[in-house]
Amino acid sequence: MIKRKKTKKIRVGNIYIGGNAPITVQTMVKTDAHDVKVVVRQIKESEAAGADITRMNVLDMESVKNFSKIKKQIKIPIVADIHFNYLWAMEAIKQGVDKLRINPGNIGGIDKVKKIVSLAKEREVPLRIGINAGSLEKDLLEKYGGHPAPEAMVESAARNIKILEDLDYDQIVVSLKASDIQLTIQAYQLFSQKYDYPLHLGVTEAGPGKAGIIKSSIGISSLLLKGIGDTLRVSLSADPTEEIKTGKEILKFLGLKKGPILISCPTCSRTQYNMLALAEKIENFLETIDSSIKVAVMGCVVNGPGEAREADVGIAGGKKTGALFVKGKIIKTIAEKEMFNELVLMIKKIIEKKEKD
Ligand code: SF4
Q1: What is the three-class DSSP state of 329?
Q2: Do 320 and 241 belong together in one domain?
Q3: Ligand 1 pocket check: which of 263, 264, 268 to mutate, most ligand atoms within 8 Å of Cβ?
């Protein structure tokens, strides 16, 4: 059981980040912010994939003014990601965004920050300070040897936090992202020793496909295992739904989120049926449920049931037949073509029983 570090609880629209709130999974809008219809369609896809929060970057006032139209059509909170332009930040708050990602240090002076903070207070909109190793202040880089050290990242966060705290504002979430995994982990660890503001985890520019998933999983999981992190985004050069699915899997495998888990063996020369096709079909089915159940799809009857003893239910294929097993014990032998249906039936039965108990 992972013991989570206690952080401040921040309300973001209809959910919470930090405190004892469940760890949330975020993604971003990746289409043209001017096209409300397309943006809404993508956010709805993210919602269907299980996103808790989404975020949108803006490039001009025209797209900032789309936030209220978008908000009316979606269920999850939306965050406006704004750099440098305080007028866009003010307008985003007026448009009803649920959170702003903004660094007070680069918004163009304390008077502008004051205006944003005053409006954020009035509308109860929290702010995320997003420190990125790639855009640290020059003096901090010099102070720490010319490269982005974890200490430099934390000091940059501290500067931004101080600006807000001096204005008596504490509805703050912080991220300290880098594309280097070790740097990311060290920066978050160092920060969490000093502050109790909730942390948004992520490894930035993680890359495409498999490499991105691996990189993000290592970085994010290392921190979650230490009890650090209140919300996360898996940044992938891929569709937002992929980011969400990966984020949710990370939480499930660490026991930090409810949901089904599929166990399947790597197959070997003992496998005598199309196990990969069955595993894929079961994986798709499991995406339609959110109950906690461990399901195994194994390559052979000889070792399958034993190797997958921890699963609530599983199937192990043989030649023309398969064995349905519960907690490692074979309960039924079935024809190969019935394996999918029988397994799904048993999964539903077990879930029903769990819910009644
Ligand atoms: S369960 Fe059977 S098929 Fe799968 S890896 Fe083990 S021995 Fe091979």
Answers
A1: strand
A2: no
A3: 268
Shortest-distance Cα residue to atom 3 of ligand 1? 299
Cβ pair 266, 304 in contact under 8 A:
no
At 143 the pLDDT is 95
- Give the domain extent around 54: 10-253
pLDDT per residue as tens digits for the range 136-179: 999 999 999 998 999 999 999 999 999 999 999 999 999 999 98
Q: How many residues does the chain have?
A: 357
Query: What rounded mean pLDDT belongs to the chain?
Result: 94
Mean pLDDT (whole number) for 253-281: 93
Q: How far apart are CA 100 and CA 244, in angstroms?
A: 20
Q: What is the pLDDT of residue 308?
A: 86
* Pairing assessment for the beta strands 261-264 and 313-317 based on DSSP bridges: unpaired
CATH of the domain at 298: 3.30.413.10
d(CA 92, CA 162): 23
Atom of ligand 1 nearest to the CA of 271: 3
Q: Which two tokens stand for residue 178?
A: 């880098």
Question: Up-side HSE of residue 261: CA atoms within 13 Å toward CB?
Answer: 17
Does residue 151 sit in the same domain as residue 295?
no
d(CA 69, CA 14): 18
Helix axes 209-225, 181-194, angle to 10 degrees: 30
**Is residue 36 domain-shared with residue 136, that is, in the same domain?**
yes
How far is it, in rounded angstroms, from Cα 188 to Cα 180? 13
pLDDT band (50, 70, 90) for residue 204: confident
Ligand 1 centre from 308 Cα, in Å? 10
